[in-house]
């Protein structure tokens, strides 16, 4: 798909209401967003503005209350739980603020688990080795998360997120727990992935410096996308 | 890959893993020891019956096989049996229970030795005085007795005059006259053993004895031995079933608790798996596999432990109990622990499978 073709992600009138006991929380109040293939987008906004919720819906972890979400032609709103599970396996990779590696598995097995769940054979091919070299973690693969630094864990998490060639990489405050040095490493990596491999990336961040790595910045407030912050 | 996760999860909380497997193992040991004791003790009883050397047994009317408590056969029946065709030797015994599962056997040393080929004395020799008792090696070991030791039963003190190799009828022997008089059974027998001139005359001899003593219970040795089984010990089967039921329940509780805490502490990990695209079935299967590993490891440990209980029984109470290893029951006991364990994993597994991934991942 080219820049002028149908967008990779097409969100229209997306609403999400959480029910907490007797209270309804409106996390998303009508979001419209289009993302072209190969874009690197930063999403910024105050805490509680619905950024993570938007990601969970894009990633098929949560269902929308109203509106439509098209990813690569698939309509997420019309999908069953099983179909959304399939989307998670094939179309998206998640990176979280808290790394979220499986603590009992080695770095390599964490990546292998993502391949296993997606039903893919374990990568040993050139692309995978190159990516690990690019991420600078090739020599740390045998370690478990607890003996890796935060920066190393996040780089492994990125490797895990892209190993199945997802259409979209969703990174929720990937540098939120990192010092500036490691933040820079991770941000440069994401830019490299975007530039060299054409990886489409959506990244939530609080940090304007981090947002500056993206092509485009989307601002959110109170469950909506706003033009001027 | 899924197995790597299962093994690493179990290793990660190895104390919990070990304790859970141990608890499952103890259940398995309980079942196997009980079964081993039942089989072993009955088997040993059979061997001792075989050791008498008889071909036919004569028991009084209306008595049970296990537990010889009365002595209602008049001694003249013995004289009568001796005159029947094909009968080479006949000897009578009088049995007196002395508490617990133990009994003392009154024998006529001469005819009993003829029939059985005679005791092999490890120490001492046959009766000399009226307060002499002959015991077998197991009884001697269990009660720390040797030739010349005094031992108390039937409200009297007895002197050990001889220690014999085990395997012939019983563990403690007195002159038959002494047992009869002390138990108010003078001139009465509990049982008569018959040895034939030729083994192939068995059918003819059986018919003759049955014909001559119509009210009595007449068995060939093989018939008699086939009656010494778990099925014929009142309540034993029920007892085994109760222990199995308890094992299932305890296995259920142990695994339930273990897996329930595992699921609670793995909220985030389950969320991660789901974010990677794992289905509820995948999450459930991780827990089920962990449970199967626990149950199988526990069962294996439980089987090994039964060698320990057998050693302890052989060492401390060889005169009262015998435990054998019964490999036929290994799969049964394993299945029992597996059943309890899988039931225990059901609810935690269901809880994990339907857990909301977002809530787990939201605590940023
Ligand atoms: N699982 C949940 N249940 C109920 N309310 C939630 C849940 N997750 C988020 N919310 C609420 O939805 C709103 C948006 O949250 P979130 O998407 O996490 O925002 P952000 O990532 O921008 O901080 C907040 O008011 C938050 O309290
Ligand atoms: Mg958030």
Notes on the protein architecture:
- The complex is a heterodimer of chains A (229) and B (364).
- Chain A has helices at residues 51-58, 81-90, 107-117, 126-135, 150-162, 180-197, 208-211, and strands spanning 9-20, 23-35, 40-44, 66-71, 74-75, 92-95, 168-172, 200-204, 216-221, 224-226.
- By secondary structure, chain A is an alpha/beta fold.
- In chain A, helix 3 (107-117) packs parallel to helix 5 and helix 5 packs parallel to helix 6 (180-197).
- Chain A starts with 8 loop residues before the first strand and ends with a strand.
- In chain A, the strands form two sheets. A six-stranded mixed beta sheet of chain A has the order 6-7-8-3-9-10, sandwiched between helices. In chain A, strands 2-1-4-5 form a four-stranded antiparallel beta sheet, with helices on one face.
- The mean pLDDT of chain A is 91.
- In chain A, helix 6 links the parallel strand 7 and strand 8.
- Chain A is built from seven helices and ten strands.
- By secondary structure, chain B is an alpha+beta fold.
- Chain B folds into two domains: 2-44 and 235-361, no CATH class; 61-215, no CATH class.
- Chain B is 56% helix and 16% strand.
- In chain B, strands 1, 3, 4, 5, 6, 7, 8, 9, 11 and 12 form a ten-stranded mixed beta sheet that branches. A two-stranded antiparallel ribbon of chain B has the order 2-10.
- Chain B is elongated and about 95 Å long.
- The mean pLDDT of chain B is 91.
- The interface between A and B is medium-sized, with 34 and 25 residues.
- Bound molecules: adenosine-5'-diphosphate and magnesium ion.
- Adenosine-5'-diphosphate sits between chains A (18, 20, 25, 27, 45, 47-53) and B (358-359, 362).
- Adenosine-5'-diphosphate (ADP) sits between chains A (18, 20, 25, 27, 45, 47-53) and B (358-359, 362).
């Amino acid at each position: 798909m080219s820049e002028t073709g149908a967008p990779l992600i097409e969100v229209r009138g997306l609403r999400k209401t959480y029910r907490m006991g007797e209270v309804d929380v409106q996390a998303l109040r009508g979001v419209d967003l289009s993302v072209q293939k190969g874009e690197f987008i930063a999403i910024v906004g105050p805490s509680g503005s619905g950024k993570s919720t938007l990601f969970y819906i894009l990633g098929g972890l949560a269902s929308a209350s109203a509106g439509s979400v098209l990813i690569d032609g698939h309509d997420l709103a019309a999908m069953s739980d099983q179909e959304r599970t399939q989307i998670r396996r094939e179309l998206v990779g998640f990176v979280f603020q808290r790394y979220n590696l499986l603590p009992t598995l080695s770095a390599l097995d964490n990546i292998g688990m993502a391949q296993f769940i997606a039903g893919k054979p374990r990568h040993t091919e050139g692309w995978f080795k190159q990516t690990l070299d690019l991420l600078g973690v090739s020599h740390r693969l045998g370690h478990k998360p607890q003996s890796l630094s935060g920066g190393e864990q996040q780089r492994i998490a990125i490797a895990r997120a892209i190993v199945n060639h997802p259409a979209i990489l969703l990174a929720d405050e990937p540098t939120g727990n990192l010092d500036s040095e490691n933040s820079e490493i991770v941000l440069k990596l994401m830019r490299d992935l975007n530039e060299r491999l054409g990886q489409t990336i959506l990244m939530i961040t609080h940090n304007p410096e981090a947002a500056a790595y993206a092509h485009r910045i989307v601002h959110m407030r109170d469950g909506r996308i706003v033009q001027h912050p | 890959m899924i197995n790597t996760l299962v093994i690493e999860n179990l290793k990660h909380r190895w104390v919990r893993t070990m304790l859970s497997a141990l608890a499952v193992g103890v259940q398995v040991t309980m079942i196997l020891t009980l079964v081993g004791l039942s089989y072993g003790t009955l088997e040993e009883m059979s061997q001792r019956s075989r050791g008498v050397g008889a071909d036919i047994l004569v028991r009084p009317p209306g008595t049970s096989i296990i537990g010889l408590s009365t002595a209602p056969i008049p001694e003249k029946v013995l004289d009568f049996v001796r005159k029947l065709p094909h009968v080479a030797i006949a000897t009578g015994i009088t049995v007196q229970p002395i508490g617990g599962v133990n009994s003392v056997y009154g024998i006529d040393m001469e005819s009993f030795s003829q029939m059985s080929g005679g005791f092999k004395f490890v120490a001492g020799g046959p009766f000399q005085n009226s307060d002499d008792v002959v015991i077998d090696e197991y009884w001697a070991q269990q009660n720390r007795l040797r030739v010349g030791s005094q031992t108390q039963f039937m409200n009297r003190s007895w002197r050990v005059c001889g220690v014999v190799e085990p395997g012939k009828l019983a563990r403690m022997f007195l002159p038959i006259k002494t047992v009869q008089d002390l138990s108010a059974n003078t001139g009465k027998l509990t049982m008569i053993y018959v040895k034939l001139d030729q083994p192939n005359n068995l059918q003819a001899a059986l018919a003759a004895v049955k014909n001559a003593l119509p009210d009595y219970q007449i068995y060939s040795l093989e018939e008699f031995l086939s009656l010494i089984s778990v099925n014929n010990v009142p309540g034993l089967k029920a007892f085994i079933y109760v222990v199995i039921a308890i094992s299932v329940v305890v296995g259920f509780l142990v695994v339930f608790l273990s897996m329930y805490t595992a699921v609670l502490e793995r909220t985030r990990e389950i969320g991660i798996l789901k974010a990677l695209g794992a289905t509820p079935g995948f999450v459930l299967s991780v827990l089920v596999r962990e449970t199967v590993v626990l149950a199988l490891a526990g069962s294996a440990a439980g089987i090994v432990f039964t060698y320990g209980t057998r050693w302890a029984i052989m060492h401390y109470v060889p005169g009262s109990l015998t435990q054998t290893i019964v490999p036929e029951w290994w799969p049964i006991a394993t299945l029992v622990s597996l059943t309890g364990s899988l039931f225990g994993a059901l609810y935690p597994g269901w809880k994990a499978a339907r857990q909301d991934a977002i809530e787990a991942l939201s605590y940023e």
